[in-house]
Predict the 3D structure of the following.
Amino acid sequence: MNPFRLCARRLAVSLIVGVAGFPAGAMAADAVLYSNATIIDGTGAPARARQDMLVEGDRIVAVGAHGSLGDRAAGGRKVDLAGRYVIPGLVDSHVHLATPPNRVRAEAILRRQLYGGVTAVRDMADDLRAVGDLARSSLAGEIAAPDIYYAALMAGPLFFEDPRVLSVSLGFKPGNAPWMQAIDKSSDLRTAVTLARGTSATAIKIYADLPAERVRAITAEAHRQHMMIWAHSSVFPARPSEVIAAGADVISHVCYLGYEAQPKNLAAYEDRTPVQEALLAPAGDDPVVAGLYRAMLKHGTILDATGNLFVKFEADRKAHPEKKPLRCGGAQTIRLTQQAWRAGIPISTGTDYVDPASDRWPEVHEELRYLAKDVGMPPLAVIRSATLVGAQAAGQATDMGSIEAGKLANFVVLSADPLADIDNIEAIEMTVKRGREYPRADYLPVTQKELGDDD
């Protein structure tokens, strides 16, 4: 897309006046009283009708019954939200923004996410030079985007033959970039983690081709240096039970847990042999996976299920049978997620795919629908997964994920009740991120043609 055209488009969008007469993306006044809304706070507590919320700068300073905040809101701007529903900003806990880096595309994706109610994302390893700049631009309010928290990747040397590595570590020998490091028995893990910290990453992503001993050692050193561990649920050859026992904070892809039932795990990530689903219980709770879930509860491990990815791909493969299958099918993915929910595992809402630019809504909405309609979770629990659990997965629950005094003013205003129908997640009137308002009416999607792609 012509960069001058894109800049003109952004300027036009920024001048459109949104709800309550407030310019899109403009900084909120010192005090704003959002009044008389039904608040679903993200903690799993029941909805509370007729609530007021006072925001000062980028923080929520008080929440209370309608009319109870009194003089605290005097002199500030007032936004009447009678008949509206307020939920915390959504979190997509599994995105890839820069493989390979493409600033125009990334900004288009991030803009769609923000105007679709997403106020934070967890980037699961890309070219962190590009991701770090996007994160800074978002934080500074230079672009309309969620806050971005990201991981530096560690994997065994075999993985660094993957062509994707070249696209995210240009200028470095594969496996030697601080954000994309090859690890073996000789690696100095203290130095490796220190280099990863220098990228401003929140976490280390343990990806592939590492034995259990290396997974344990990386996890221990990362935690010693106050970094989280975000890992694939099966690292190959490390088994899911070994990844969980090592102390990973979040594991991705519920599907991969099925490898635990096999007598021996695949020797390498590059072996794409699917899960032997016949080894798992055909219905109800699988006893092997039940053991994994007990261990996850003991360790406080969060599950980034990415369930809709597998359901979506299976549906697509029916129309395109020439496509190679993923590691397991949609039905098995649903059953494993249902078992996780019954076991009390905290489930976040990660996507791990990108829809065409012409789509008007962020991908994470489909993960919410997956949890509500395929898995059968109550909408109240789904919203908690997409907000507070997502914030926990990103290591940011102190500042976001629920509507509480002291937390960032990250929330979404809906015109219809998402507890009555999860599809009402798209009844968005406005997203507020760090006190800035982004009216949905101002959103103009970037087309495939503008991105230089074919429809």
